[in-house]
Amino acid sequence: MPVYVLDSNFFIQAHRFHYPIDVAAGFWNKVRHLAEEGRVISIDKVKKELYDKNDALEEWCRNNLSEDFFKDTSVVMTAYAQVTSWSMSRSEHYLPKALNVFLDAEEADAFIVAYCLADNTNRIVVTHEVSAPQKVSNIKYQMPVLL
């Protein structure tokens, strides 16, 4: 059974735009339930991005997601090297700033791709980002490209 790996923007956009925590309790209860079943997970880098705002979303995550929900990305460094190589091989296309942001060790994007790439038959990225290969100012990834 596949596991869905949630990007930061899954939580942020849901909370800010579509399903505010204080209005859409059913949505957030379902997220918690799926997390308890292990059907949805995330990574440590996403946790860092969510736990730096001191807001209602951070509070909900702290109160409803187990520590095990956020997986350690240090175990996917081989896949991260693949993601790094892929992005650097396109250095003539992307602006240096785009590469620096994508490969920043504190940012989640490259690590979430690596985490899913490490077990690509069982892990699926859930994100609001859309692949945009023509853009040069930021890297929007598409998993099949990396496989």
Radius of gyration: 16 Å
Mean pLDDT: 89
Strand order of the largest sheet: 3-2-1-4
Instruction: Write the H/E string, N to C.
Output: EHHEHHEHHHEH
What structural class do helix, strand and pairing data support?
Answer: alpha/beta
Unreliable residue stretches: 143-147
Could you describe the 3D structure shown?
- By secondary structure, the chain is of the alpha/beta class.
- 49% of the residues lie in helices and 10% in strands.
- It has 2 domains: 3-71, no CATH class; 73-122 and 129-146, no CATH class.
- The protein has helices at residues 8-18, 25-37, 44-50, 56-64, 77-88, 96-102, 109-117, 143-146; strands spanning 3-6, 40-43, 70-71, 123-126.
- The chain has a 4-stranded parallel β-sheet.
- Helix 5 crosses helix 7 (109-117).
What layout of secondary structure does this protein have?
Layout: E1 3-6, H1 8-18, H2 25-37, E2 40-43, H3 44-50, H4 56-64, E3 70-71, H5 77-88, H6 96-102, H7 109-117, E4 123-126, H8 143-146
Parallel strand pairs: 1-2, 1-4, 2-3
Helix pairs in contact: 5-7
